[in-house]
Amino acid sequence: MEAVLEAPPSAVGYCAGTWTLPLMVRFLVEQVGAPKLHIGNISRRLRARDWRRLRPRLGIVRADPRREENPSTDGHRGGKKGALAADPEALILYEDEMDLDWNPRITRVWAKRGRPMRVMTPGQNEKKTVFGAVSVAGKVYYSIQARKRAVNFLAFLEHVLQRVAKAGQHVLLILDHYGIHTAKTVERFVAETEGRLRPSADGLPSYCPDDNPQEKVWSHLQRTVLHNCYHHSLAEREAVTRRHLARLQRTGCFHLFQT
Q1: Where is mean pLDDT largest: 63-72, 84-93, 110-119, 127-136?
Q2: Which residues contact 63 (CB under 8 A, 6 or more apart)?
Q3: 74 vs 146, which has greater pLDDT?
Q4: How far apart are CA 12 and CA 186, in angstroms?
């Protein structure tokens, strides 16, 4: 097990960025043939051999990776409340945005004391924005945009009306009070839909991971394929993000809201 922990879970076929105790149990059962162990036993054995949960050290990639050119801003196809509560056909979505940084975010991992994991970074960050929305049934929709501005938010709203909602279907969008959500251009666009698209009247706080299911989708994405993971370009990181969200679109993500 110690030798396996020196490499990321992807090296042995698991879609995860870092080792967790439940994933270690799964590896030992599926690939080693060991009887199922309690995670507490594994934790005690690792600590006895001087393993700890440590924050990785960051390192800068000296070589200048090829920068992506002509970044695409295309979208990827993919509790009732307020005035639409009486419409059983209304599509109710919780919306939020996530910064997709080239610089990896780090989180604590199991490592030998004195030998923390090393995570490389490009040094100079680049980023895009992922606009996402999840329905009360656990279906997730998203679009990756170059920036996080009102014009990009409008592009996502058009994506929702044209490629997510059915023709003529009303959409109730539950939002927080982030600035681009209340921009004048957004208010004009909503008015032009003549009631088909309605942001929630009360809205959500600016940061509300417990109240907005879409934030749980972002957290799962980060933990599973982005934390502590270096990619050679922002385009590669975007491709990893698209693949993970595509899996959630196929399987649904209602299970994320139960935790």
Answers
A1: 127-136
A2: none
A3: 146
A4: 47
Question: How many Å apart are CA 103 and CA 61, to the nearest integer?
Answer: 11
**Which two three-digit tokens encode residue 51?**
């393993």
Write the DSSP assignment of 75-126 as a string of letters.
Answer: EE-----GGGTT-TT-EEEEEEEEEEESSPP---EEEETT---EEEE-SS--
CB 86 within 8 A of CB 92: no
Give the pLDDT score at 72.
Answer: 34
User: Could you say which architecture CATH assigns to the domain 72-107+122-258?
Assistant: 2-Layer Sandwich (3.30)
- In this predicted structure, the answer to whether residue 220 has a pLDDT above a threshold of 70 is yes
Q: Residue 121 in contact with residue 105, Cβ under 8 Å?
A: no
Q: Please choose, from the candidates 16, 10, 8, the residue with its C-alpha nearest in 3D space to the C-alpha of residue 224.
A: 16
Tokens, residue 234 = 């922002």
Task: Say if strands 197-199 and 171-174 run parallel, antiparallel, or are unpaired.
Answer: parallel
Q: Phi-psi bin for 212: left (phi > 0), alpha (psi -120 to 50), beta?
A: beta
| Cβ neighbours of residue 85 closer than 8 Å, sequence gap 6 or more | none
The mean per-residue pLDDT over the stretch 43-65 comes to: 73
Q: What is the dihedral of CA 25, 31, 35, 41, to 10 degrees?
A: -30
Query: Binning pLDDT at 50, 70 and 90, where does residue 86 land?
Result: low
For 88-117, the pLDDT digits (tens) are: 789 999 999 999 999 998 888 888 888 888
Closest to 174 measured CA to CA, from 212, 215, 130: 212
Ramachandran category for residue 138: left, alpha or beta (phi over 0 → left; psi -120 to 50 → alpha): left
pTM, rounded to two decimals:
0.72
DSSP collapsed to 3 states, 32-48: HCCCCCCHHHHHHHHHH
